Amino acid sequence: MATNRTFTMIKPDAVKNGYIGAILEKIQTAGFKIVAMKYTKLSKGDAETFYAVHSERPFFNDLVAFMTSGPIVSAILEKSNAVEDFRTLIGATNPEEAAEGTIRKLFAGSIQENAVHGSDSDENAAIEGAFHFSGREIF
Ligand code: RTP
Ligand code: MG
Fold it and tell me: Which domain holds residue 84?
């Protein structure tokens, strides 16, 4: 995957709260092009694999339970400087610390139920995108 792409998920809390449309609006208005997207649900194994880097963290089991609690929207987004610009758009992990106008400030309820995921590096964006999408699902 080229380095002008990032990977995102609209997490189960934001889906349940009816924020899919509003979050996609923010993403597109900020200049990101959607090159892949699906409505799906992670299995326990999927979530454990996706978040394997956090497997030793105290919140790991809660995180897996949360991320498998309902459907998500996953997407690959394209824009120059995509990874960094998307992390800026979503704001800090904890919505209480997120800047005004960011997606987490607007739509997240807690440090765990924080509405959206954004890849933290070009390398992870490529890995995460390939975990969710086959080549013929990316346009
Ligand atoms: P993400 O990977 O989802 O974009 O979030 P992030 O980089 O801002 O945060 P990260 O440290 O990678 O944590 C992954 C997700 O784990 C949950 N979390 N819970 N209870 C807690 O203290 C805690 N800390 C993190 C959040 O859902 C976070 O987005
Ligand atoms: Mg992260």
Answer: 5-137
Q: At what angle do helices 82-90 and 122-132 cross, to 10 degrees?
A: 80
pLDDT confidence band for 1 (50 / 70 / 90): very low
Q: How far is CA 19 from the centre of its chain?
A: 13
Q: Check which CATH number belongs to the domain holding 130 and give it.
A: 3.30.70.141
Q: Whose CA is nearest to atom 3 of ligand 1?
A: 117
Q: Can you tell me the ipTM of this complex?
A: 0.96
Enumerate residues with CB within 5 Å of ligand 2 (an ion). Answer: 120
Q: Is 104 annotated as a binding residue?
A: yes
Q: pTM (2 decimals)?
A: 0.97
Q: Per-residue pLDDT tens for 26-71?
A: 999 999 999 999 999 999 999 999 999 999 999 999 999 999 999 9
Catalytic site residue from 42, 78, 116, 117: 117
Q: Active-site residue 54, yes or no?
A: no
CA distance 49 to 53: 8
Q: In total, how many domains does the chain have?
A: 1
